[in-house]
Design a protein that fits this description.
This protein has 6 helices and 14 strands. By secondary structure, it is an alpha+beta fold.
Length: about 250
């Protein structure tokens, strides 16, 4: 379950997961901003062709709900994880972690899977961007390793991603996951010659379970089918980006 926060500009969701009180997290939606179509309206991506002035206003509205400017990553569909505390400027990476209070980790998505992490003691948090390439390459496992606590002490939350009824992929995607774990075959349903419908939520859950993470929440929304709430690159091509954010309160 998630619930909206009333806001003059942004429309935000608070993830519902058993994170300790010191851990704060937010998920943005597409409504409530200034951007015009096709980026309408709360677009936070400054790399998708939107008017930079509108993106700046949207980001400023988001900042009203945060302790500091997020570390905006230049996401590379890989497995690079950076320490947000020592990397205050934009970095090429697909995940960020921090143990420092008030430092905001963030990833932007429009179909790919955003995953937020924290430990049960509330000492470290992370945000990871898991497109299928990064997921197959081990971005979630890399983020877990960088957090430096036993995987059994971690909690994960899956933000909005393209759902299993909409995520069509080719044979090469299925082969990449099945080669790593035969059980990944359960996340693919035939959808024509050489095509499959993939469940990215299940694929991520499988990998986290193998890694030792047992507390996994979220993973019920579909960016492709829920056009009123979410941006979707697969659906629209040119579109905006949402943000999944996490930090430690002081």
């Amino acid at each position: 379950m998630t619930f909206s926060i009333p806001c003059a500009m942004a429309n935000l969701l608070v993830p519902d997961w058993p994170a300790p009180a010191r851990v704060r997290s937010l998920q943005t939606l597409r409504g409530g901003g200034l951007s015009l179509a096709p980026w309408n309206s709360f677009n936070l991506g400054d790399h998708v062709g939107d008017d930079p002035a509108n993106v700046a206003v949207n980001r400023a509205a988001l900042l009203d709900h945060l302790p500091s400017e997020p570390l905006w990553l230049r996401q590379v569909h890989g497995i690079v994880t950076v320490d947000a505390k020592i990397s205050p400027k934009l970095k090429e990476a697909d995940a960020a972690f921090t143990r420092a209070p008030g430092v905001v980790c963030a990833v932007m998505t429009a179909d790919c899977l955003p995953v937020l992490f924290c430990d049960r003691a509330g000492t470290v948090v992370a945000a990871a961007h898991a497109g299928w390439r990064g997921l197959a390459a081990g971005v979630l496992e890399e983020a877990i390793a960088k957090m430096g606590v036993p995987a059994g002490e971690l909690l994960a939350w899956f933000g909005p991603a393209i759902g299993p009824a909409a995520f069509e992929v080719g044979d090469e995607v299925r082969a990449a996951f099945v080669a790593h774990d035969a059980l990944a075959a359960h996340a693919f349903v035939p959808h024509g010659v050489g095509k499959w419908l993939a469940d990215i939520y299940l694929l991520a859950r499988q990998r986290l379970t193998v890694a030792g993470v047992s507390s996994i929440s979220g993973g019920t929304r579909c960016t492709f089918s829920e056009a009123a709430d979410f941006f979707s690159y697969r659906r629209d091509g040119v579109t905006g980006r949402m943000a999944s954010l996490i930090w430690l309160a002081s």
